[in-house]
Amino acid sequence: MSDFSLMGLKAPTVIFGAALLLLALALPPWFGSYHHYLASLALINIIMAVGLNILTGNAGQISLCNSSFMAIGAYATTYLSVKLGLSYWLALPLGGVISAISGFFLGFPALRLRGFYLAVVTLGFLEVSQILIEQLPGITGGVRGISSPRPALFGHTLSSDLSFYYVILAITLATIWCAYSLLRSPTGRAFEAIRSSEAAAQTLAVPLAQTKLAAFVISAFFAGIGGGLFASLVGFIDPLEFGVWTSVRHVVFIVVGGLGSITGSVVGAIVLTVLPEVLRAFKEYQEFVFGGLLLVVLILLPHGLVGLGPAIRARLTQSDATSVAAAQRGVAE
After folding, report:
1. Backbone angles phi, psi at 112, to 5 degrees
2. What is d(CA 144, CA 147) in angstroms, rounded to the nearest whole number?
3. Of the candidates 248, 252, 256, the residue with the CA atom closest to the CA atom of residue 297
4. 314 Cβ partners below 8 Å, 6+ apart?
């Protein structure tokens, strides 16, 4: 279930979000440029994870091509702003829209396919997008890649990682707010119904085709926005940035954090963005660590890291209840 009950949110979620926001606003000036870059990357990963979790965690549609939508948004934003001279702040949402249109067309197979077969189709889309990126050097720079300069805001170029970090933070907060609002709407409830049972959703008059397409479009739009921000953050993009491993990492974000949970998307993206830095000395084993962590979470924490708190509370409540019962039996005896 999604974790929303301010805006219908549960108290622990509100407290966690407020504390995280306070840290995100207050701490960065005390750190260096590299940490600002890493924090910005974590925020972009949050956008990617939130969008993918809407599609997979809430609507139940498997996707292994989230990096393709990210690439479309990145290259579209860069091309529109650099080659066509549009304002970056216009090119960024347009890149998201172009990604959303791609998601719309990819969503059609989801009307008839599910599970493994849908995953294969999305993987095929990823491979096709990789080929197109390499074969369209006039737009994408081909295998050599393309530069993506930092945007300007109010006449000032966001050249420092700290200034761009705060812009990305504002966009990430807007993304999270939109996602919470969406999941509390009839469309969000339709997503949940389809994930639980398509047959039952049909009996409730949920339009399966339109709802599935909406999930793909929304997820692709979020990925496109994240891709546009990523391109400007790193300053250079090439096809290697958007391969299958990137899509797998996005899936790991939401599984480790918690499927169907926006809070889980945030937690998973932050933890798994910082983790490679912690394991920098074991870089060649990062894939092994990611796979091992995924297995551990699936076995021990089926609801992800976001389910750890409720599980601990339930265990403590059960322990307290057992202690009270034992005390009562002692008094009775």
Report:
1. -120, -20
2. 10
3. 256
4. none
- Residue 3 — φ and ψ, nearest 5°? -105, 35
The pTM for the full model equals 0.86
Q: Which CATH architecture has domain 11-302?
A: Orthogonal Bundle (1.10)
Digit-coded pLDDT (tens) for 141-159: 888 889 888 888 887 878 8
Task: Give which of 64, 93, 89 is closest to 175, Cα–Cα.
Answer: 93
CA nearest 273: which of 20, 39, 26?
39
Residue 295, classified by CB atoms within 10 Å of its CB into exposed (0-12), middle (13-18) or buried (19+), is exposed
Q: Which of 66, 70, 76 is nearest to 122 (CA)?
A: 66
Count of alpha carbons within 13 Å of 116, Cβ hemisphere only? Answer: 0
In this structure, the number of other CB atoms found within 10 A of the CB of residue 58 comes to 28
The rounded distance, in Å, linking the Cα atoms of 43 and 138 is: 30
Query: Distance between CA atoms of 254 and 251, rounded to whole angstroms?
Result: 6
- Give residue 39's identity as a one-letter amino acid code: A
Name every residue whose Cβ is closer than 8 Å to that of residue 148 and which is 6 or more positions away in sequence.
74, 77, 78, 82, 231, 232, 234, 235, 236, 237
- The pLDDT tens digits of the residues spanning 186-227 come to 888 888 888 887 778 777 878 888 888 999 999 999 999 999
Neighbouring residues of 116: CB distance < 8 A, sequence distance ≥ 6: none
Helices (H), the chain: 11-26, 33-53, 66-78, 88-107, 115-135, 137-140, 161-183, 186-196, 198-203, 208-234, 244-257, 262-278, 286-300, 308-332
Torsion on CA atoms 149, 155, 161, 167, rounded to nearest 10: -100
